[in-house]
Structures are given as structure tokens and as C-alpha cells.
């Protein structure tokens, strides 16, 4: 990169190059002086992966652009926090020592205590410890007011200022705009879709109407032509109509509606209006269908999305005499008797389940049942009833802790009745609208898909498949919890809420990826700093500088006299592996961090027991992560 830029100044002119230069220099310096914190700064290069996705890159650039405002807010917080810490040191001194580790006995611990109150983790412990440290009622009152005043200022005002900074620098509309742009995933979907079309044998215009691909006048003339298929068809048929040929009249009758305009009176530059264009393509579709073109191929021809070289000239465009002559002559006799049929000529969509036509008595009966308000009310009551049955059903057979509200036989009977009602509703809608094919097919609705899954689970349950104790049966029984989702489909307000939630999934997914990369970067740093150093002896007797070697044998409890083996083990959090490091930092990012922070300050060396605040500088790592992860990324 440096050689490509030519000069060092031009190299540093790019934000990406500047970041790469700083990371390289600091990580190299860390390796030279054997400082693990600096050496692990190379993990910041993980953020370079975001450059390959425009939305993530936009989030990263917004984060960098908000750094100045973020830094100013931190300075503002430090000024008020410094004043609070100085006042607390005079007010409490070392009175809180022995009551809690969050004290004001020195400036460092006082700053961390103020930061703890700022984030709110365990703030009540600090409050009651400060009040307990005072003997008089006035002292306790003053201590409580002092701690609460800082908590309110920090938690309710300064914390919300962080949100304001984010709102100012991050445009949700921009993020959604980037999400909607076609990217790598859309290109992949397009490639798969085109591959499926090729495999299915979907033909292009060139293969259906080969004469339409003849190039006349060279590429320049071809580029200047109109690509609107109805307009080209209009030009060709209008020219043919003026020739007053028998074939022209046949094609005009096949392509234009009987009540449409006279093509000889229309200028070649004027396109068809909406209704005439629709009628035109209905009849073109009929001609093609009568000519034996497959349904799938006919849809490709009628879609209007043709390649540029498929429309070469007005004379050879789709619908011209050259392209439609053979088709019209061969199909005219048969197509003429079919032009009066309904617009929907696709028989597969005309029959639900390929069995019940629109005029079928069975289909009409189920359509009336589907529209019935009585059935809708019965289904709603069945949903409520199934939820009640689900609530009173114990988690396993024979698991009885309280008096049963309903016996097993009654639950089974009502469950069968409710499942029968849901099955009737499903059959009525499928027969009335179709299962998959058709614009109003049952499975075209996502809510109906949810209903289908719930019904399938209920039917499996009725068959007795879930009666066993295997893992599959347990998982399927867990799926019963989806039954209340049926209620959402019946309530328009709840549907709007769920639909709005689903619409936010794409932007939220990118933010989750951004937060995940942040966790990965700090997790790699934490593994280098604290890997294996949180371990301690499970019993007293191996205090620092002792360690793993001394933590062996058995230990007798002084209180109960119980003999127990010693073990060298971690607390419930650690940085020993990538997974445990990610989980620990996720806990910290949810502002449940005090135990982790105190353990980090107590670490000594590998295989040595911790010591009280042996390495207080380790708190800087977690404080920085809290500022970035908890206050910035999470918000």
C-alpha cells in the first residue's frame, strides 16, 4: 500500500491506512517489549472484514465519525466523576473498608466505585455499605443522598447522553438503505435462480422466436431501438395492417381486443394503455398456449424481461410478421375459438389441489365455510381452549406436584376436539384457495405457515408419537408452546407488531454482526491477558504466593469439620478458551461485570493464587470494553 501511494503523507491520508499503520506499530512495539496488551492489538484487524459488506462498513465509518463526540462525552463524565470521587473520599475515607470492595479509600478504588454507580451494577450494595459506615442518623441520611445523587446524575442523564450521541451519528434510514441494496447474497440468490431456470428448461425469446434475434443495421441501430415489447409489437402490427394483407388481419385479430383502437389510426410512437395492453397479452398468451408452448416457457415470454439483442428492429421485433407469422397461421383456427375464454387460462391454478374446480360444489361449500363467522368464532375459542389445556398439562406423565385441575382423559378428549376444529379450518381454506398454487393459496401467507406447523405438531401428538421419553419426543413436546401464536393471526394489532419486528430483523442482524466482531476482538485480547490466570484453590490454605502445587490433598473445614478434596479451578467465568472468553465478555457487556473486574485486578501469575488488587491496571481493559461494548455497541 505504501509503494502504491508513493509518499508517506499520501499513505496516511487514508483512514484505513492510518488505522493499519497504528495497529502495526503498536503491536510490533508490544512484541518487542513483551507487553501482551499491546501485542494483542493486532486483533483489531478483524474490523477489516467489515469492509467487504457495505452495511457493516457504513456502521464502522459511523462509529469512527462519532468518536469525537463520544470522547467529549467521556471528558464531561470524567469531570463530574472526579468531583464526586474527591467529595466521597473526604466523606467516607476508609469507613467502608470491610463492608464491601467498592470503597473510596484511595483514588483508584474510588474512581472504579463511581464508575460502578454510573453503570448501575450492584449500586444498592454500595448505597447500603455507605450508610452502614456511618453511626448517626444524619450521617446515614447524608451518605444515602450523596450516593443516590451521583447515581441519578450518571445513570439517568449521562448514560442517556450516550444514546443521544449514537442517534446523532447513526442514521437508521442509511442502514436500511444499505440493507436493501443488492449485495453478495443477492448475487448468490440471482445465480441460483438463473441456474434453476436453465435446469428447468426455461427458454429465452431467442429460442422461442429465433427470427426476432436477427440483427439489422448493426449494433448502433440495435441500441437505439425501443425495448418496450408492447410498443414494438404495436409498430409491427400497425405496419402490417397498413399493408392490408390477409395475414396482417389475422394477426391483428389475434393480438388486439375486439373493442380496441384501429391500429392504422395510432402513431407508431404511442404505446398501448393499461387495459388494452393487458388484453393484448392475454391473447398473445392464448396464441402461444394453443401453439403448444409449455406453460413455463410461455410465462418467460410474457414477462417482458428480454435480453437486449432479442429485439433487433421494428420489422423483427416480438409480435412482428417475421416472428409471429408461422405461429399465427398454424394456430389461428384453433385460437379463434378460445379467445372468448376467461383471462385465467392456467388450468393448474384453476383447480385447488388439482381436483376441485371453481364451479365444483365441494369447493363452493368449503369456500362458504371459510367465510363463515361461526367457524371463525369456533376456531378462536378452540385456540383459547388449547392454551388452557397447555397450561394445566404437567411437563411429564406422573409429574404431579399440585392438585390437577383436569384429569388426563379430559385433557386428551378436549385436545382431540380442538385438533379436529383446526384440521377442519385447514381443509376448508386449502380447498377454497389452494395449497401452494394461486395468488391466494394457503401457504402464500407466512401466518398460515405458522398455523400449518402448529397443526402438524398437534396431529403428531394425537397419533401418540410424543408419548415416549426420547429426545425427539421431548423436543416435539416443547413445540407445543407455539400454540398461542395462533392468537396473533386473529388480532390485527398484534400482527402489525410482529410484522414490524420482522422488518427490523435485517438491520438488527448487521448490528449483531458488528457487536459480535467487537466481542471477538476483545475476547482475543482477554485470552492473552488473563488466560489461565483466574484459577484458584477451592479451599483456603493455598494463599499467594502459593498456588497450584500447594492446592493438593484434602482440607478440613473449620466450621463443620468436613473433609473435602482440594481442586485448582476457575470461578464461573474465565478467559481460558475462546468460548469462555466470549461468554465472559458478553456478561460484562450486559453490565454484570463487578465480579469479573475484581478477579482481573487480583490475578498474579500462572499457577499462582490471586492476591487482593495485585494488578489494578487490569481494570483498564474491562473499563474500555464497557465503554465500547456496553455503552456504545449495545446502545
Give an overview of the whole structure.
- The structure is a single chain.
- The chain is an all-alpha fold.
- The protein folds into five domains: 1-34; 67-169, Helix Hairpins (Orthogonal Bundle), CATH 1.10.287; 203-345, no CATH class; 361-500, Up-down Bundle (Four Helix Bundle (Hemerythrin (Met), subunit A)), CATH 1.20.120; 505-633, Orthogonal Bundle (Helix Hairpins).
- It is 62% helix and 2% strand.
- It has 30 helices and four strands.
- The chain has helices spanning 2-5, 8-12, 15-33, 36-39, 54-65, 67-92, 107-119, 123-132, 137-169, 172-180, 184-200, 205-208, 218-223, 229-243, 246-255, 274-290, 295-302, 321-336, 347-350, 361-370, 373-392, 408-433, 446-462, 471-478, 485-490, 492-503, 505-530, 578-589, 594-602, 619-633, and strands at residues 536-537, 554-556, 563-565, 568-569.
- The strands form two sheets. The chain has a two-stranded antiparallel ribbon with strand order 1-4. A two-stranded antiparallel sheet has the order 2-3.
- Helix 5 (54-65) packs across helix 27 (505-530) and helix 15 (246-255) crosses helix 18 (321-336).
- Mean pLDDT is 73; it is low at 202-237, 240-274, 287-326 and 328-348.
What does this entry show, briefly?
The chain is 62% helix and 2% strand.
Amino acid at each position: 500500500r505504501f509503494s502504491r501511494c508513493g509518499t508517506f503523507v499520501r499513505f496516511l491520508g487514508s483512514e484505513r491506512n492510518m488505522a493499519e499503520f497504528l495497529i502495526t506499530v503498536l503491536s510490533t512495539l508490544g512484541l518487542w517489549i513483551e507487553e501482551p496488551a499491546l501485542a494483542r492489538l493486532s486483533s483489531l484487524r478483524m474490523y477489516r472484514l467489515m469492509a467487504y459488506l457495505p452495511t457493516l462498513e457504513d456502521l464502522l465509518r459511523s462509529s469512527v465519525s462519532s468518536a469525537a463526540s463520544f470522547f467529549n462525552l467521556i471528558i464531561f463524565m470524567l469531570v463530574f466523576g472526579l468531583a464526586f470521587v474527591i467529595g466521597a473520599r473526604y466523606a467516607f475515607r476508609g469507613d467502608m473498608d470491610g463492608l464491601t470492595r467498592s470503597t473510596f479509600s484511595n483514588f483508584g478504588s474510588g474512581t472504579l466505585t463511581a464508575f460502578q454507580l454510573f453503570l448501575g451494577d450492584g449500586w444498592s450494595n454500595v448505597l447500603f455499605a455507605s450508610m452502614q459506615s456511618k453511626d448517626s442518623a444524619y450521617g446515614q441520611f447524608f451518605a444515602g443522598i450523596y450516593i443516590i445523587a451521583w447515581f441519578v446524575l450518571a445513570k439517568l442523564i449521562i448514560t442517556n447522553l450516550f444514546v443521544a450521541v449514537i442517534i446523532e451519528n447513526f442514521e437508521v434510514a442509511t442502514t436500511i438503505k444499505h440493507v436493501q441494496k443488492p449485495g453478495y447474497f443477492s448475487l448468490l440468490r440471482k445465480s441460483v435462480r438463473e441456474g434453476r431456470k436453465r435446469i428447468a428448461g426455461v427458454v429465452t425469446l431467442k429460442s422461442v422466436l429465433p427470427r426476432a434475434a436477427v440483427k439489422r443495421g448493426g449494433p448502433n441501430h440495435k441500441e437505439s431501438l425501443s425495448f418496450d415489447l408492447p410498443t414494438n409489437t404495436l409498430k409491427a402490427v400497425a405496419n402490417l395492417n397498413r399493408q392490408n394483407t390477409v395475414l396482417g388481419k389475422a394477426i391483428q385479430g389475434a393480438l388486439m381486443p375486439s373493442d380496441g383502437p384501429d391500429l392504422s389510426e395510432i402513431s407508431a410512437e404511442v404505446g398501448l394503455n393499461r387495459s388494452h395492453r393487458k388484453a393484448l397479452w392475454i391473447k398473445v398468451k392464448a396464441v402461444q398456449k394453443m401453439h403448444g408452448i409449455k406453460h413455463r416457457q410461455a410465462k418467460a415470454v410474457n414477462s417482458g424481461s428480454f435480453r437486449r439483442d432479442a429485439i433487433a428492429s421494428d420489422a423483427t421485433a416480438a409480435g412482428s410478421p417475421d416472428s409471429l407469422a408461422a405461429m399465427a397461421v398454424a394456430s389461428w383456427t384453433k385460437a379463434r375459438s378460445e379467445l372468448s375464454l376467461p383471462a385465467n387460462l392456467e388450468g393448474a391454478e384453476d383447480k385447488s389441489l388439482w381436483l376441485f374446480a371453481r364451479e365444483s360444489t365441494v369447493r363452493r361449500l368449503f369456500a362458504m365455510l371459510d367465510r363463515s363467522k361461526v367457524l371463525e368464532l369456533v376456531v378462536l375459542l378452540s385456540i383459547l381452549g388449547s392454551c388452557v389445556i397447555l397450561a394445566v398439562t404437567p411437563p411429564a406423565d406422573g409429574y404431579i406436584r399440585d392438585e390437577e385441575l383436569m384429569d388426563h382423559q379430559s385433557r386428551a378428549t378436549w385436545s382431540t376436539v380442538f385438533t379436529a376444529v383446526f384440521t377442519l379450518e385447514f381443509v376448508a381454506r386449502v380447498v377454497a384457495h389452494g395449497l401452494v398454487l394461486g395468488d391466494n393459496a394457503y401457504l402464500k401467507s407466512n401466518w398460515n405457515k405458522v398455523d400449518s406447523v402448529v397443526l402438524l405438531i398437534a396431529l403428531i401428538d394425537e397419533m401418540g408419537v410424543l408419548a415416549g421419553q426420547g429426545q425427539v419426543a421431548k423436543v416435539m413436546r416443547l413445540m407445543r408452546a407455539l400454540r398461542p401464536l395462533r392468537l396473533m393471526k386473529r388480532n390485527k394489532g398484534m400482527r402489525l407488531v410482529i410484522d414490524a419486528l420482522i422488518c427490523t430483523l435485517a438491520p438488527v442482524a448487521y448490528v449483531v454482526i458488528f457487536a459480535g466482531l467487537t466481542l471477538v476482538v476483545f475476547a482475543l485480547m482477554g485470552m492473552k491477558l488473563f488466560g489461565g490466570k483466574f484459577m484458584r484453590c477451592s479451599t483456603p490454605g493455598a494463599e499467594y504466593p502459593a498456588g497450584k502445587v500447594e492446592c493438593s490433598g484434602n482440607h478440613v473445614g473449620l466450621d463443620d469439620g468436613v473433609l473435602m478434596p482440594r481442586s485448582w479451578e476457575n470461578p464461573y467465568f474465565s478467559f481460558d478458551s475462546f468460548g469462555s472468553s466470549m461468554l465472559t465478555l458478553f456478561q460484562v457487556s450486559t453490565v454484570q461485570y463487578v465480579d469479573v473486574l475484581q478477579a482481573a485486578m487480583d490475578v498474579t501469575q500462572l499457577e499462582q493464587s490471586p492476591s487482593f488488587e495485585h494488578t489494578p491496571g487490569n481494570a483498564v481493559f474491562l473499563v474500555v470494553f464497557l465503554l465500547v461494548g456496553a455503552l456504545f455497541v449495545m446502545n
